[in-house]
């Protein structure tokens, strides 16, 4: 499992792009994790799935709400990573009003999630292999803080915890 001090694993994530430009076409675009983390400070949070209760009611809204404070603390980008396809993540992002604040990054085949070791097997609940609920502060591709939730919990991966860590580690 990934830990503080580790470099993020090589891999690709997809993001549904709403407006064509900056070298991105409309629809799903694939991004190389190493390339898009280079030289940036990124707050990444992972969660079990789009449209699920805690994810939709608390996790994503918290990061949208604290966007300005996280930017002021030195965060360049905020990513939400989930084992869903880019179309679902794009639609969920529209519903959650994440545009310009949180990048909704799809890990459709769970390759990135498997590489981090942050998987959650929800097969018994009909959801298959998913991402555990977590947050991490990544600087230039290296994990500086990592907060992994216990089963069924939402206590340490929230935006408030990330904001406090960003202020401490980047301030």
TrEMBL record:
<feature type="domain" description="Thioredoxin">
    <location>
        <begin position="2"/>
        <end position="171"/>
    </location>
</feature>
<protein>
    <recommendedName>
        <fullName>Glutathione-dependent peroxiredoxin</fullName>
        <ecNumber>1.11.1.27</ecNumber>
    </recommendedName>
</protein>
<dbReference type="GO" id="GO:0008379">
    <property type="term" value="F:thioredoxin peroxidase activity"/>
</dbReference>
<keyword id="KW-0676">Redox-active center</keyword>
<keyword id="KW-0049">Antioxidant</keyword>
<dbReference type="InterPro" id="IPR036249">
    <property type="entry name" value="Thioredoxin-like_sf"/>
</dbReference>
<keyword id="KW-0575">Peroxidase</keyword>
<dbReference type="Pfam" id="PF08534">
    <property type="entry name" value="Redoxin"/>
</dbReference>
<dbReference type="GO" id="GO:0045454">
    <property type="term" value="P:cell redox homeostasis"/>
</dbReference>
<feature type="active site" description="Cysteine sulfenic acid (-SOH) intermediate">
    <location>
        <position position="55"/>
    </location>
</feature>
<dbReference type="InterPro" id="IPR013766">
    <property type="entry name" value="Thioredoxin_domain"/>
</dbReference>
<keyword id="KW-0560">Oxidoreductase</keyword>
<comment type="similarity">
    <text>Belongs to the peroxiredoxin family. Prx5 subfamily.</text>
</comment>
<dbReference type="InterPro" id="IPR013740">
    <property type="entry name" value="Redoxin"/>
</dbReference>
<comment type="function">
    <text>Thiol-specific peroxidase that catalyzes the reduction of hydrogen peroxide and organic hydroperoxides to water and alcohols, respectively. Plays a role in cell protection against oxidative stress by detoxifying peroxides.</text>
</comment>
<dbReference type="InterPro" id="IPR037944">
    <property type="entry name" value="PRX5-like"/>
</dbReference>
<dbReference type="GO" id="GO:0034599">
    <property type="term" value="P:cellular response to oxidative stress"/>
</dbReference>
<dbReference type="GO" id="GO:0042744">
    <property type="term" value="P:hydrogen peroxide catabolic process"/>
</dbReference>
<dbReference type="GO" id="GO:0005737">
    <property type="term" value="C:cytoplasm"/>
</dbReference>
């Amino acid at each position: 499992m990934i830990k503080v001090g580790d470099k993020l694993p090589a891999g690709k994530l997809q993001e549904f792009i709403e407006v064509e430009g900056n070298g991105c076409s409309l629809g799903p675009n694939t991004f190389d994790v190493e390339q898009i983390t280079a030289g940036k400070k990124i707050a990444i949070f992972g969660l079990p799935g789009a449209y699920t209760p805690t994810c939709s009611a608390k996790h994503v809204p918290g990061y949208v709400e604290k966007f300005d404070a996280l930017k002021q603390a030195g965060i360049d980008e905020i990513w939400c990573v989930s084992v869903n396809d880019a179309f679902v993540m794009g639609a969920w992002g529209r519903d959650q009003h994440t545009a310009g604040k949180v990048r909704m990054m799809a890990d459709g085949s769970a390759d990135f999630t498997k590489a981090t070791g942050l998987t959650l097997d929800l097969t018994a609940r009909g959801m298959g292999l998913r991402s555990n609920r977590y947050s991490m502060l990544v600087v230039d591709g290296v994990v500086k803080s990592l907060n992994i939730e216990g089963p069924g919990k939402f206590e340490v991966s929230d935006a408030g915890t990330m904001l406090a860590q960003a202020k401490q580690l980047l301030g």
